[in-house]
Specification:
The chain folds into three domains: 97 residues, GIY-YIG endonuclease (3-Layer(aba) Sandwich); 73 residues, Arc Repressor Mutant, subunit A (Orthogonal Bundle), CATH 1.10.10; 117 residues, P-loop containing nucleotide triphosphate hydrolases (Rossmann fold). Helix content is 36%, strand content 18%. It has eleven helices and twelve strands. The strands form three sheets. The chain has a five-stranded antiparallel beta sheet.
Length: 327
Amino acid sequence: MTRLTPGTVVEVAIPLPLPGLFSYVLPADMRAAARPGSRLRVPFGPRKLVGYLVRESLGKSTEGLKTVLALIDDEPLIGAQFLDLAIRMARRYAAGPGEVLAAFLPAAVKKGARGRRTILVRAVPVAAARALADLGDSDRLTARRAVLQALLDAEDGLPRTLLERRLGISSSPMKTLERAGLITFEEVEEREDLFARLDIRPTHAPSLMSDQVQAASAIGRAIEDSRYAGFLLHGVTGSGKTEVYLDAIGRCVAKGRGAIILVPEIALTPQTVERFESRFGSVAVLHSRLTDSERAAQWEEIRRGTKRIAIGPRSAVFAPVDPLGLI
């Protein structure tokens, strides 16, 4: 991502119904961390507002410009492609670019809501495997052996609370292993499984009927060619349109792209979500019945690419799926 140069003047989008961008001086201590897409606190008249860093203004004089007050985010919340989209949308719909960018972020994220945090414990593979072989059979070392074995079996690590509960131990053996350089602790966002209470079993795509094959093939050609195209599927309820959607999403996923599924809020039922989750797994859900922390966690998983398929009402069209292959 673009690093900003010394003496930087940046163009900032302010979330007000005003055209264009506004120039500010970025202080030296913010230049290493600030990136396009970062949120900044800036003076605007008598107020202090949160704006969005869009780009650096090369060669522009700093004379008469106000200075950025604070960098809000550790990393940009909005990717470069969404910045470009916001500028185009602002021109087309006669809106302020800052207003458009503000619409890209869920209210929960703008308010600073975060998913729940947990301590993830990981083994240092080579050192932990060697230490496990050297620990011997002493009863005094049973807890340490159990921790190392559990972590070596779990390549991505395990939450500390889960380890303590599963092994029936306190945190003391883990602290000893950390001091020895055999395991590491990292604070991470806890993934909230919205489907934990549903009995979701994987399903496979059924054979399509002739009309479905015709529609799926036309959509599939556009996906394969990576070209924009719009399609209208016409059919009564129960005629099999959803299977065509699922087929198209599957083609996108196979090419390493994501998809956004828009449904009316009233239709966003567990059964609807289950149909997509059972076919693809790891689907992000965005709707008003989620808590702030749940919405923020789902959005963050989409942004980080952990989940590549998002389902929600109209506002989910701004979900940060990247690369996006289908809506």
